[in-house]
Each structure stands twice: as C-alpha cells, then as structure tokens.
Write a structure and sequence with these properties.
Length: about 500
C-alpha cells in the first residue's frame, strides 16, 4: 500500500489498460496502482515540500537572479543570435484577444489570429524569396525534419525512391546530419576547402542518382558567405537533388539577399533567433519551413489560406476584404507535425518585430550585425588567431590553439574566465573544423561600448593566460557554481530542491 494512497483521504486517479479492445481508460483506485506503470516508476513516498508562498517567491526570485541572460549582459553565443528582444513583442503577444484564444476556436471566430499567421507567412515569403511557408514546426531542428520529410515524399511521388543521400558540409550544425538520419537518409559529410567554403569540385564528385538533398547554411558557421552558391545550386539541381537552406544565420542577410534567389528549394528560419523571441535553455522556439513553388502542396497541415470576400472593395484593408481559413486538404501534405497553431504567441512576436522595423529596418539590422562582427574580428585578431581572416558576415571564429600550445590555456578556460567578468561565453568547440574554436556573434543590438568592454576583457584574459595561466585555469571564481561535470549533469541530473545557503 503506498503512503500516498493510505495516508491521505483522496484516492489517486491512475491510468489502467482498458479491459477490452484497444485504448485505455481512467479508473479510480484507492489501492496501489498496478499493471500500467512499471514498479520502478512508482513512488512509495511523496514528500511534498511544506513552504509558505513567501518562501517560494524568494526561492524563485533568487534563482532568477542567478541566471545569466541577454537582459543582464553581452551574450556573444555564435550561431544563436542572442539579440535584444523588444518588450513591445511581448505586449502584442499578451493582448487578451490573442492570448485568451482557445486552440479549438473555429476559423470564423479566429479571423484576426489567422490573419496574423497569414501576414507573417507573406512577409517571410517576400523577405526570403520562397513561395510559401508553414508556420507549424516549433524549432529549427523540427523544421529540418519537416523539410526532409517533404523532400522524401516529393521523391517518392516522382518514383525516385533511390534518392537516399543527404549531403551536409562539415561546417554544418549537428542538427543537420541528425535530422537527415532521423528521416532515414544516409548522410554524406562534405569537406570544406581552405577558404572554409563548400568545394564545388568535391561536391560534384559526390553528386549522383542517389542525391536527395544538399543542406547548406549560408553564411556558414564560420560566418563566411558561400560565394559559389549559384554554381552549387546548379550542380545539385542538375543531379536531380534539392537544395535546403538552414536559416539559423538569416540575421546575416535578412533584407539584403534571399535564399530563394540563390536557388534553394526548401529552407527554415529560427524565428527565436533572427526575429527576436526570447530563447535559450531549450525554451519554446518557432521554426517556419519555407518551400519553392513546386513543393507547396507537400507542406504540413493545416496551412493558412486567404481568399477575397465576395463583393469586397479591393482597396479595403485585408481584414475587410479577405477571409482566412485553415486548409487541411493539401493534396501531397506530409501531414501534421505539430498540434493546433504551433507557437502562435511567437508568430505574434515575430510579426510585431517585422512591422516595427519594416523592410528597410530589417535590412539595416543585418548590415549592423555584420558590421559589429567585423569590428570585433579585427580587434580580437590582435591577440587571438582568426584562422579564416577575411570579411565575415554576422559572426567569426577565433582559435585558442596557439595559446594552448604556449600556455596550456584552452578555449574552455577562456570561456570560463569570461563568465567571471560578467560576459556570456562565445560558442566553443564548434564548428568542429577549427581546433580550440571560439565562435563569436555579437548581433546588431550591442553598442560599441559593450563590444569594447568585451574586447578589453578577452585581451586581459589572454594576457593573464601568458603571465599567470593558473589564474585562468581556476576560473570561474565569481559565478554561482564553478566548473561543472557537464556530461554527468546531463546524464544524471540532480533536480532536488535545496534551501538557499543563506536561509539553511
Ligand atoms: C540553432 C541552429 C540550428 C537548430 O535550431 P533549433 O531552433 O535550436 O532547433 C540549426 N542550424 C544552425 C546553424 C543553428 O545555429
């Protein structure tokens, strides 16, 4: 008999296998749960914490003060686009008329929400040169999987099932090969050339009748624009394959260049990166997937459609002359990939950001992101190696390889020392092709003063590494926790509640 069941007056409701047929039913039971849950998952004891509201408020307030975020300091985490998230986005997402909409609201009563989704889709199409976007996938990786499912179905419908290989450059994010493998494709890793780009010759060598998709990030994770992109797209198309654009780095070219014009058939955006939505720590994302005209019918369902209202004035505002509905009947759809309207509040935030900036503003965002990255690059190369030293896009990669040889101080140690000085660390040890890499992405929302403070801190750390390396190897000293065994923390998480030392 469990203590939970015996010590309290209520009976837990447990989930038991149905007596007949398929499916399950809820049954009330006062006894020890049997059958459905494995015994090791059952608790004999459930010690509920006995805390006052004030204790709980203090606990979470303290926790919030221990967390580092973009609102607290510079966050140059390469590839993640940790830019300022304007509060006006949240004000829009929190409007009661939007926030309180029930996901089952019929289309007739959700016209405003559907219009927001439609306008976001139209804006993304014009910004990135695609025929249509599905707003359904909830993150970049989810969108990659969705796009690869689309490609798979497309080839199946064309009777080209032999196209089972996805080509991924060695500069790609790990999600690219992972998504391809999850989708049942064979992954072929393509070595980049001495300039950190895809080698067209190397690519042509591996293209063939088995080529399904070439997944590219442009600019790539070295922050370099793939300047042979037209040639690459032509070669892949001639071999019968599709071009996929990983849009995680869209902050580098938004409003200035369009993947659709570069020859991409499929793409995704990370709205939570480029379009100012708070993210990190695995928080909710939003990853629309875009397609060229020949793939529109393969998009996931539902898809938002607009049509003119009969007899409406063609010059009226869209809400007066058009009606919107969710289309569940795309002939070749890969099916649903997400429930309801996906992360609708994020669609609102992204559209608020787009309208606040306008087309010119968004183009300027990218230009400033590129300017900031290049400013940092030429200042950082005074004291750290920058292996691909040319004009970069929104980010660049430095290396602590020489420093490590000279002093024993690694990229990881530099990162820890930055935490001590109030900065988030850059992305380290990625991309994999640069030893001891630090991938630095400042974004457009940082001031020159902040960039200068970061350079000064990093310069001081590097010089300390040379004079007194022990100091850097011992960092961080001022953070809430020191060096963690990150592998163990991930494999054996210890999530118990501990009282704060100040109150213990
Ligand atoms: C962030 C990122 C992804 C994955 O996106 P998520 O939204 O985190 O799933 C894919 N590719 C690149 C280059 C990225 O930076």
């Amino acid at each position: 008999m469990s203590r939970l069941a015996s010590d309290h007056t209520y009976s837990p409701i447990i989930f038991e296998q149905g007596q007949e047929g398929r499916g399950s039913r809820y049954v009330e039971s006062g006894g020890a749960p049997t059958g459905f849950l494995p015994p090791e998952a059952l608790r004999a004891d459930l010690p509920l914490p006995d805390n006052s509201e004030l204790d709980v408020v203090r606990h979470f307030t303290r926790l919030s003060a221990r967390t580092f975020g973009i609102d607290l300091g510079f966050y140059p985490l390469g590839s993640c686009t940790m830019k300022y998230n304007p509060r006006v986005n949240d004000a829009m997402a929190e409007l009661p008329a939007l926030r309180d909409l029930h996901p089952w609201t019929p289309d007739d009563l959700a016209q405003g929400a559907l219009q927001i989704m439609w306008e976001l889709e139209r804006s993304l199409c014009s910004l990135f040169g695609m025929a249509a976007f599905s707003l359904n996938p909830s993150a970049g990786a989810h969108a990659e999987l969705t796009a690869l499912l689309i490609a798979k179905k497309y080839f199946k419908d064309r009777g080209e099932r032999q196209r089972g290989t996805v080509i991924v450059p060695d500069t790609a994010h790990g999600t690219n090969p992972a998504s391809a493998a999850m989708c049942g494709f064979k992954v072929l890793s393509l070595r980049s050339d001495a300039r950190g780009r895809v080698s067209v010759d190397e690519l042509k060598n591996v293209l063939g009748a088995d080529t399904a998709v070439c997944m590219m990030t442009n600019p790539n994770t070295l922050g370099l624009f793939e300047d042979h992109i037209h040639e690459i797209a032509r070669a892949v198309h001639e071999a019968g394959g599709l071009m996929y654009y990983d849009g995680a780095n869209a902050n580098a070219l938004m409003g200035n260049a369009r993947p659709g014009d570069m020859g991409f058939d499929l793409m995704h955006l990370n709205l939570h990166k480029t379009f100012t939505i708070p993210h990190g720590g695995g928080g909710a994302g939003h990853g629309p997937v875009g397609v060229a005209a020949h793939l529109v019918e393969y998009l996931p369902i539902p898809y938002v459609r607009a049509r003119a209202k009969a007899g409406a004035d063609p010059n009226a505002a869209p809400s007066d002359r058009m009606e919107f509905r969710l289309d569940f009947d795309l002939p070749h759809s890969v099916g649903p990939v997400r429930s309801f309207w996906s992360n609708f509040a994020h669609a609102v935030r992204a559209l608020a950001y787009i309208y606040a900036n306008g087309a010119e503003g968004l183009a300027k965002v990218s230009q400033l992101a590129v300017l900031n990255a290049n400013y940092l690059r030429v200042r950082v190369r005074d004291f750290l190696e920058t292996p691909y030293d040319e004009i970069c896009r929104h980010e660049f990669v430095a290396s602590a390889q020489d420093l490590k040889r000279e002093t024993g101080v690694k990229a990881l140690d530099l990162a820890k020392a930055l935490l001590d000085r109030g900065f988030m660390a850059p992305t380290i040890y990625f991309p994999l092709i640069v030893a001891e890499s630090l991938m630095i992405e400042p974004t457009e929302t940082e001031s020159k003063e902040t960039l200068d403070e970061f350079v000064a801190a990093l310069r001081e750390i590097v010089s300390l590494a040379k004079s007194d390396p022990g100091k850097i190897l011992a960092a961080p000293e001022h953070t809430v926790v020191g060096r963690l065994d990150e592998t163990r923390a991930a494999r054996q998480p210890d999530l118990r509640w501990y009282p704060h030392p100040a109150t213990a």
